[in-house]
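Researcher: Please translate sequence to structure tokens.
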Amino acid sequence: MKQKGAMTLLTTALLLSVTLLLVLGSYKTTFHQIKVAQNELRSRTAHWSGEGALECFFAFLKTGNVLVSDLAKGSSHANYATLQSLCLDSSSSAVLFAEPTSADVYRLVYQVDDVDIVNKSVQLASSGGNGAIIATGYFVINGGVEIWPDVTGNLINGDQECVAITYADEIEYIHSGGAEKLETLQDQPKMKNPVAGAKCHSSTATSLSTTKSTSEDKDKSFFKNDFVKDTSIDPFESFFQQPRSAIDTVKNDYSVIQGVPVNCDQKIANEFASTDMVWVEGDCDLGDGHDLTGLPATPRTLVIENGLFGVYSAVKFYGAIYHLNTEPATTDFSARWANMESGPYLGPANPKDVAHYQGGAFESTGALIIDVPYKKSYFNNSMKFIFDPDAKGGGGSNIYRYSWRKGSWNDL
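Model: Translation complete:
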């Protein structure tokens, strides 16, 4: 009996020991899981805080006329301190900064204790090498035109890759005789970051003195590579950093006025006295454009929406012009041109299908975007088109325009 009692006690002790070991093991496993969960929570909290901080960073860039290159880690620029104050908790050990990864592309970084937590990339929409002129419809150039081109930032055997015109349909050049020509000035590219002795590579410097169309020059014997055909180009989204469906939102940044077929330059100049962003609805004829010549040389943007555009005299406009006309191809403009100040100067241009007309030496130095996909644009003049990227105003209220780099954020 005593042996049976001892065996019972021993068995009970062993069972209790095993149970205790199981409980302790379970407790350690549970404790480990709790620690993992807490670490995961802290990690996700840091990540979510970082995403929020980067959204704040992006908003700071979009709304504050801020140059992202001033926001390198530890920068002494006032905007860097403002960024930390606006987007981070004062007690946080985190820091926000930007670092370049390629031309006009920057990585925005949220860092805690020198460890990267979240980073995304933004694209600075500068001139972007799209050209001094962008045309989506059929484009006729009649006369001599010299173009100071845009540059892409790429080098070809040490020289700049230049872009004079990007076009979606075709370009027709009509040689009017004599020494006039369509020419990209090889030694004259103007750059945001000037390089001493910069010039266009000969493969991107057109010099054409014979009537020719891009449609009959598939091997680029006449129109060199500074004339870039891109049938998929969407100048609206590129310029305004918004899809066309958001046009009403884009217009909120502008002073909107109604166009007039005579003395439209006067209405525009009056508006530019108090803003650098003017949006004209309807037909707008600048006439001799005299009222625009006295504007100060500050970056500005002029948009003409769903109207005819005309000018017939020598005008230098410091800024970018965006002409948007998406009226149907069947629309006959003849009667409207009869009321336009430039109507009598159309010359060989057919008023029926021309939406954009320029006679005389009109210079839009901050780029000219002729977004008239269903109609023609017509130059009937001899001019020097001097492109200057510093004159190019912003598509929105910020002269520095940024967008999330495709694939670096939630591209929904």
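Researcher: Any highlights?
Model: The chain has six helices and 27 strands.
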